[in-house]
Amino acid sequence: MMPRSQRLTLWCLALLLSLALYLKGRVPTPRGEGAAFSRYTGQGIIVRVAGTVRHPGVYRLPVGTSVGTAINMTVTGGVVGESVRGPLTRQLVSGDVVTRTTDGAGNPLITITKMGAKERMLLGIPLHPDLLDEAEWDLLPGIGPALSRRIMADRHENGAFGSVDGLLRVQGVGEGKLAAIRKYF
User: Fold this and answer.
1) Taking the model in full, what pTM does it have?
2) pLDDT single digits (tens) 10-26
3) Under the phi-then-psi rule, with left for phi > 0, alpha for psi from -120 to 50, and beta for the rest, what region is 28?
4) Element housing 113 (H / E)
């Protein structure tokens, strides 16, 4: 039989361990920021702002947002001035990359480019079959280098696909392969 003092010691240790586990489960843990790569739901547009801005990154903005508005939200020191060169009034679309740089004289310069296919796929932004290059086609599942070359050759010979269904005219693209990549378009 175990002495009473040892039983009391074991009982106190078990109580302390239980209390520590209980408190650890009850203490709120800090929560992180929202995910930058949330799924594209069709609500608003997703653009990346880069260059000499306060908060570069990927933003979800309302439809109809202009380049100037997007830059104003992220530029250091306030509103974009008259001296800025670039398409400030152009409306942004999903997949645009707005970059603010400065020229040799220190004047702000804004350029707009498109996200690459990999970034668009990660963000869930639909691709367009007439805008992909050979390397980007190769990123899609089931499309290897040879089929990428055939797709590009077909587009050069016969013109734009118009939609993902236009790929069916390319040798090696059937209904099964089209179904596998349709979710990216």
Assistant:
1) 0.62
2) 999 999 999 888 887 77
3) beta
4) strand 108-114
